[in-house]
Write a structure and sequence with these properties.
about 240 residues, alpha/beta, Rossmann fold, seven-stranded mixed sheet, 8 helices
């Protein structure tokens, strides 16, 4: 069976619309629980594609390629990507691949975006690299058991040790890309992983910024704060 880093789970809430929203979760999560709190206010009347991470691994480039192929195959004219944390790496790769595509308009809304190590705090790099090495070692020692979805991330949602290891590896890799299609970014004032100053420099030129008083990517346990920030952001972008 061919490895597919993301499995699409579609939800047609507005079949007459040619807009598709792709949802990409972040580190150690899946899109359904990560975005559940925003469903009524943002997605109830929108066409959705949950980009479910395959338990056999996380591959940003292959994931982006699958999304691009899906957009072109279905001829979606308007594409909106909501990405959390390391999921932003996939979103920005989609932007690169479709930058000169005249058939589809791309828009990205990023939540605590971490496409690469350039966005990390210096202190976070100190512990994240050893953590990445340790988790990858555990994954190697587990062998095929590492692809079993055993890490609970929400109701009926789990990920594997292999996915977590690959995501940590991606966050520790270099990524420099001048974004153009990011319209909104939510940052967190208590984020101990990301250096918000770097995020403001990277995205402030083209995107409207919103803020929460949360730690990194807490869209599940601090959902109300993120919902408020997204509503404010939506008004700014409109």
């Amino acid at each position: 069976m061919k490895f597919r880093p993301v499995v699409f789970k579609r939800e047609w809430n507005n079949p007459a619309s040619n807009t598709m929203n792709y949802l990409l979760a972040g580190l150690g999560s899946q899109p359904k629980p990560a975005f559940q709190a925003f469903y009524r206010d943002f997605f109830a009347r929108e066409n959705l594609t949950y980009c479910q991470f395959d338990s056999r691994g996380f591959d940003a480039l292959e994931s982006a390629s699958r999304i691009v192929d899906d957009v072109r195959r279905n001829k979606f004219q308007n594409v909106r990507i909501y990405a959390i944390s390391v999921g932003e790496r996939v979103a920005e790769m989609v932007e690169m691949m479709m930058f000169y595509d005249m058939d589809a308009k791309i828009e990205i809304i990023a939540i605590n975006p971490c496409p690469g190590k350039e966005h990390l705090r210096l202190k976070a790099r100190v512990w994240l690299v050893p953590a990445m090495i340790l988790v990858n070692l555990v994954s190697f020692l587990l062998g095929w058991l590492s692809v079993l979805p055993v890490i609970w991330v929400g109701k009926d949602q789990k990920i594997s040790v292999r996915v977590l290891a690959d995501q940590l590896f991606a966050m520790c890799q270099s990524w420099e890309h001048d974004v153009e299609r990011v319209s909104g970014v939510v940052l967190s004032s208590k984020d101990r992983l990301l250096d918000n100053r770097k995020s403001v420099r990277a995205y402030g030129r083209v995107a409207k910024l919103g803020w929460t008083k949360t730690k990194h990517a807490q869209t599940i346990i601090k959902s109300e704060e993120y919902l408020t920030a997204l509503k404010v952001l939506k008004e700014k972008v409109s």
